[in-house]
Amino acid sequence: MATQDKGPATNIRKGNVILYQNVPHMVTEVEHRMQGRQAGFIQVTLRNLMTGVSTQNKYHSNDTIFFCFVESKTLEYSYEDEAGFHFMDPDTYDDEAVSAKLLEEQRGYLIPGTSYSLLFVEDKPVQLQLPASIEMKVEEASEGLRGDTASNAQKPVTVETGMRVQVPLFIKTGDKIRISTADGSYLGRA
After folding, report:
1. Predicted TM-score (pTM) of this structure
2. Are residues 138 and 167 in the same domain?
């Protein structure tokens, strides 16, 4: 795997992508520590960009770190097939297939024709960066019970991607709603 740069561990910053055990990991936390008379070290929390698993590691100031070339591209989601999820570059019309395994947890937020930010490491897609919320159309909603407004009553609805969301009783089929991509909760009407 080609890298953009190598350097000392003291160059590690939050948001860098580095090679750890020959796999790209994003640095999510960095802390410089000193221990009495001993040499200082850098404590980092790393998130594996292939599996999403976080781990902690220590580096000494003279350790050599391999920094990966990272690029973020805004691509438009097109469709899904056996090759995975297909995204199109709106400028060049190039098609980029992303494995279904990589986007399994985010599948419910992918709407054809919508632009998403994809993180590329060494020209390979490794992570979909979702916005904080997304607007979706309600495809199927049952009728709320009349007069059931004394409490914060909710009902399940199905949105255009097939995802189920708990919403207030007044939401009906055809409404557009905002959904949090962090936990899939209802945020309001769009």
Report:
1. 0.73
2. yes
Q: Which of 67, 82, 104 is a domain's end point?
A: 67
Q: What is the CATH number of the domain that holds 167?
A: 2.40.50.140
| Centroid of chain to Cα 14 | 17
Q: Give me the pLDDT at residue 146, please.
A: 62
Instruction: Over range 82-86, report the average pLDDT.
Output: 91
Instruction: Flag whether pLDDT at 2 surpasses 50.
Output: no
* Domain that residue 30 falls in: 5-67
The contacts of residue 67 (CB under 8 Å, 6+ apart) are 3, 4, 5, 6, 7, 11, 16, 17, 18
